[in-house]
Amino acid sequence: MRLNTTDFEILRHKSVAAAEEMGLTLQRSARSIYVKEVSDFGTAIAGLDGKAFAYPAALGLAAFVDLDLNPTLQAIGPLSPGDVILSNLPYANGGLSTHLPDLQLVRPFFVDGQLVAYGWTMAHTSDIGGGVPSSISPRFAEVYEEGLQIPPVLLVRGGVPDETLLAIYRLNSRAPKTNMGDLNAMLAALEVGQKRIESVARAHGVAALLQFQTQIADYAAEKARTVLDTIPDGRFEFWDYLDHDFNSNVPVRLCCALTKRDGHIHLDFAGTDPQVQSAFNLPTANLRSPYLALRLLHLVTSRDRTAPNNHGLLNRVSAAAPEGSILNPVYPAACGVRHATVMRLLDAVSGALHQADPGLVPVAGGGTVLPVVLVSPDPVTGETRPMVIQSLVCGSGSRQGSDGIDGREAGLSNTRNSPIERTEDEAPVLVEHYGLRCDSAGPGRWRGGCGLIYRIRMLRDDLAVMARGLERFRFTPWGGAGGRPAARCRVVVNMGRPDEREVSRLDYLPLAKGDTITFMTPGGGGFGDPFTRPAEAVLQDVLCGFVSVPSARDDYGVVIQGEEVDEAATSALRCQPRDTVPTLDAGPFRRSWDEAFPDDLVRRLIAALAPFTPRIRSRKRQALYESVLPALKDGGLPRIEEPAQTRDAFAQAIEQLEREVAA
Amino acid sequence: MSGGWRIGIDVGGTFNDLVAIREADGRRVAFKQPSVPSDPSRAVEEGLRGLMDRAGIAPAQVSRIMHGTTLGLNTILQRRGARLALVVSRGNGDVLEIARSRMASAFDFTLKREVPLIPRQRVFEIDARVTAEGVIDRRPDAAALDALAASLSAAGVDAVALMLVNSYRHPALEAEVAGAIRSRLPDLPISESAKLWPEIREYERGMLAALNAYVQPLMEGYFDRLTDRLAGLGLTMPVFITTNNGGSVSLASARARPIDAALSGPSTGVTAAVLESPVRLRGRLVTLDMGGTSTDMAVVVDGQPEYTNEARIGEFPIILPVIAVTAIGAGGGSLLTVDAQKVLKIGPESAGSDPGPVCYGRGAQVPTITDCYLTSGILAADSFLGGRMPLHPAPSAAALAALGDTLGLPPGEDRAQRAADAALQVATAMMSVEMLKLLAQRGLDQRDFSLVAFGGAGATHACMLAEEAGLDRVIIPRTPGTLCALGAALADIRRDYGRSLSATLLPDGAGFEAVAEAVAALAAEGTGWIRGETPGAEARPLAFRLMAEMRFPDQAHALEIFVPEALRETLDGAALLDLFHREHERLYGFSSRDERVRVSTIRLSVSLPEPALTDAALQASPPAPGARRHRRVFSRGEWHEALFRRRDSLAPGDRLEGPLIVEQDDTTVWILPGWQCHVEADGNLLLHRISRKEGQA
């Protein structure tokens, strides 16, 4: 029985609204900062196939459209009305969670005794125990350090909560009241979902509701196909890097090969580096997993705003990440800080798409979120407390026909900034400068968005600054189609003073009264040859302070005199022959790195390391890289003087390792 | 004064609506006049002349004019305001570029951001800075101020907005800089952010100053022309301008702070909807203002519309308290289209007022919701807008029949009606889910609510919407088409005051002094202002509404705590904390009474309540002889012989059952089968669901 167009469209509105009402209920009554301010929560309604058919259009996290409840459901078996499953362990719920603070609830929706759908809610709760407050630290190596592990279990049986389980849960959190508030909000959201689905079933019939679940997925698939078919057939590969694995300065490579054939797209992440002994791992449970194909979802929904949010959008997409890699780690790898990994994963997929057709997606944005944390004594209790005083983003990547956005990058969280006045009201600092960073954007016919500059002055002596998870200090955001990379991330203490010093990795930095610290985030990459950018646009950027006069000349070939373009000098400069640039240009350091550590050798190394346990694998990998390039031990930007020599040394070291393994 | 008339004027995109109320007995007269977008004051003049003619009002009998204007709003939306410069503290020059550093969507990479109201080249930094404690950190010297004045002069600007970091804690530095600029450039108007609204958040406060400066020259010019035209009509009584908070201010106050008037239209509609609803139902109302191009909803709880400090004008935030009105997708002009998968889509594009729906006969080809009303028989071609605008049923039906063909509806003579019916059902579902989300967001249950419908199409769609969304009552005021003008006529003089502070209350309530001081200062400021707004205000009682934003130190999201008026005078720290903890417990199921609590912002509204004006008794006029008694309507898959009545033929106490059409000059009311229509003593129609009583509370 196919639904007619009227009923179909009405059911579409009602089912999405039901998922959104769940989200609004959760957001209203949850108490944790993550839900309130960062919208780190999700709600959806899944069909009997365990996949979401109704997902909010713009509420909470948009990343989990492709969620899969089946591993969770299979772990528990048949459900009764009023049951609710709780879980948070990615390794036990099929990657439904990606780190422990994300509580997952699943409730079967019954109508007159018949199972018709599943409600899903997720919320990033304040604290789930573990080694640090809020449960997340990059230095953790195993989930045992990250808090209470909960496999799928029945939190509520037939409407009755399991008090034993709740007692354990409460004891394992530093913020039990807030957490219970969140849990109750999630349960309330599920109750709203049940009510709405019940009223939909009563108005349209259970059969229509069940038919709708598959029909809406088919509808989404058809819409997606129109967009995805713009990707040409072929195999396209790209990799990008995380600056380091936290425990050392050895970079981590994320590799994506996109194959398009017969209308089907396969994302293969083979060639991605092994899992790390820090919390950067992204558990994906050997499944397509929402994050792996997320960039394709962005592509579809950006190109067709009428496409409904459900798993049907990815009907023709498969994905595979090698087991034991940072994109599919094995238990018990820590995974609290997978945010940076996800951002780089998106860049890798973007790069592959860009190879297929430069017009498909923007080039790399700044690609890092920089939470500036001030550690200061509480004015009343004197106790030291960390406080996020600003969340600095970067500039967005440009694309065919459009500059990137200055000082804004939606990325994953898309949160609002903290006003200067709020920061100064809460923390003993003075924000001296909060603006767009000159010359941070990748030059191009379409330039990248500018990154940000943020300078704070300490108003007390006993302060410290933390900024973990900073990225793009070495591997700059790439430009494409002749566009150039953006400036790298920088942090400078006492900039412009005699005691100025550059900080290449910032963990915990004590500062004294009067000291300043300046954060400079990358801009987005540029698109197209910057020498073809209209001189008038370059002049505007110079007048606004986004591009310097030297950069206008060197990067854009535009000579500015006073407040005007020197037309003659500009034409002369723009006619001169120039070096060609790669299709995707990530800058000189990246070029020398790729030359020194080429793809075939990296893959050989990954294979050679495979037999070892994750801990030994990580140690051996670090030692091998450091022996080949000793400068890695010092941090900062390691200079690769002779890439060919480094490559030879790399090859020899791998051979030695292979011999060792064979023996 | 009691013999006088109060006149409310609402300027809209297509029509200017005017309502006169006689203060002695509440008699009302309404009048509609086509707008003159090129010179709105002319249409106001013509409308006033028409209204006074119709009602037989002499100029001397008009006691006050209450005027709502969309000029400020349109100036911003169309970006045709003053050429501005912005002056900010050193290091903060990119404040408009960065805004809140957030994109409209996390994932749509084709989105762009707003074009800043003031381009970066006209933003100037100076060494003027206040610390968070309200101490001056840096102050510009004379040379710096000379240089600034020279830059402003060279930039050739009409006006300046001034926003210094932390000026909300110490507005004097902004005043000092403004004074220095004024002494150098005496003719340059300056909007100071902290003087307008001393609330924490530099971007939003700066935008407020900028928007105020942006609309000021055009608004002042309009007010001048308006005053001239009124004088030409012999009207010299006080003029008031309606405001974003549903109230009104004197013309002099509106000149000084014109941004107060930018969003007044929808707000006065909500005010009137509340006042027009029966007192017994005011506890829980949803207002539905549905016009040709937009549909707005607002939630009213305990007789009070909800206010927000997060309203937007186009792409810009406005932190002044505004009645929270939510625009939802479908309006009468929403276009009906079919996508590649042959699924019917409604909106988001709208036909607007020109060319408008197909039935307007202005050459439009794509059918709209209004075409559906006409084709299904709810609207009559010859009585739209009291017969002043004949509709064209044939092209409307043809367009809908073609749509039905594309959708694969069965062929037959009623295919157009079936297509119209399908579209109305989808549109109703869309409006219904938006309403339910609005209520879910507030934790409210739709079954407790009554729907108040107004605007040209509100009454036409309200019953369908209530049926779908599960509301049992619909209120149709007497003049739904001119309700915003009525709201203007009934608006109290009112202004909101706000101030951010840095106060921490200890668990025993200690630390309340800073709060008390702020409340007292705001009350004194507001009282002083309102006493000067209108003669005779000294002797009349004032009304206050006090709100406090409060939170635990570790809580990012502040709660807005309403302080009941009975508590305000005697409020102390312990009582305020108790209000906060109770609200926290209500929302989250717990609170922590042993923790410190921060009070971050205080808001106080001051108003001068007008005595209630009840409408004069309703007189029913007998139906014209030979008038039609039935109309055929196609609805929900079948034809109905709907009873047909003119609104003015209904008498209080009448009870009629749907299917029923009640037609009046400014709208057509459609009442479904299963609903009853009761004519209240004051002339309002109360629609009541009768068919689904079982299992209802």
Tell me what you see in this structure:
The complex is a heterodimer of chains A (663) and B (697). Chain A is globular. The longest helix of chain A is centred in the first third of the chain and has 29 residues, at 176-204. By secondary structure, chain A is α+β, with helices and mostly antiparallel strands. Chain A is built from 16 helices and 24 strands. In chain A, helix 5 (176-204) crosses helix 6 (206-228), helix 14 packs parallel to helix 16 and helix 15 runs antiparallel to helix 16 (643-662). Among the domains of chain B are: 5-76 and 219-261, 2-Layer Sandwich (Nucleotidyltransferase, domain 5); 80-212, Dna Topoisomerase Vi A Subunit, Chain: A, domain 2, CATH 3.40.1360; 334-426, no CATH class; 493-608, 2-Layer Sandwich (Dna Ligase, domain 1). Chain B is built from 17 helices and 35 strands. In chain B, strands 13, 14, 15, 20, 23, 24, 31, 34 and 35 form a 9-stranded mixed β-sheet that branches. In chain B, strands 3-2-1-4-11-12 form a 6-stranded mixed β-sheet. Chains A and B meet through helix 1, helix 2, helix 5, helix 6 and helix 7 of A and helix 3, helix 7 and helix 12 of B.
What is this structure's SSE topology?
The complex is a heterodimer of chains A (663) and B (697).
Chain A: H1 5-29, H2 33-38, E1 41-46, E2 52-54, H3 70-76, E3 84-87, E4 102-111, E5 114-124, E6 153-157, E7 160-161, H4 163-171, H5 176-204, H6 206-228, E8 234-242, E9 252-261, E10 264-268, H7 294-303, E11 317-320, H8 339-356, E12 370-377, E13 384-392, H9 420-426, E14 429-436, E15 452-458, E16 463-466, E17 479-480, E18 490-493, E19 501-503, E20 509-511, E21 516-520, H10 535-544, H11 549-556, E22 560-561, E23 564-565, H12 567-575, E24 584-585, H13 588-596, H14 599-609, H15 614-628, H16 643-662
Parallel strand pairs in A: 10-11
Antiparallel strand pairs in A: 1-2, 1-5, 3-4, 3-6, 4-5, 6-7, 8-9, 9-10, 12-13, 12-16, 14-15, 15-21, 16-20, 17-24, 18-19, 18-21, 22-23
Chain B: E1 5-11, E2 15-22, E3 28-34, H1 40-55, E4 62-68, H2 71-77, E5 84-89, H3 95-98, E6 123-126, E7 129-130, E8 136-138, H4 142-155, E9 159-163, H5 172-184, E10 190-192, H6 193-196, H7 202-232, E11 239-242, E12 248-250, H8 251-256, H9 264-276, E13 284-290, E14 295-301, E15 304-305, E16 307-308, E17 311-313, E18 316-318, E19 322-323, E20 326-328, E21 334-338, E22 344-350, H10 369-375, H11 393-407, H12 415-441, E23 450-454, H13 458-469, E24 473-476, H14 483-490, E25 493-505, H15 513-531, E26 543-551, E27 559-563, H16 565-568, H17 573-588, E28 597-608, E29 630-635, E30 638-646, E31 655-657, E32 660-664, E33 667-671, E34 675-679, E35 685-689
Parallel strand pairs in B: 1-4, 4-11, 5-6, 5-9, 9-10, 13-23, 23-24, 30-32
Antiparallel strand pairs in B: 1-2, 2-3, 7-8, 11-12, 13-14, 14-15, 14-20, 16-19, 17-18, 21-22, 24-35, 25-28, 26-27, 26-28, 29-30, 31-34, 32-33, 34-35
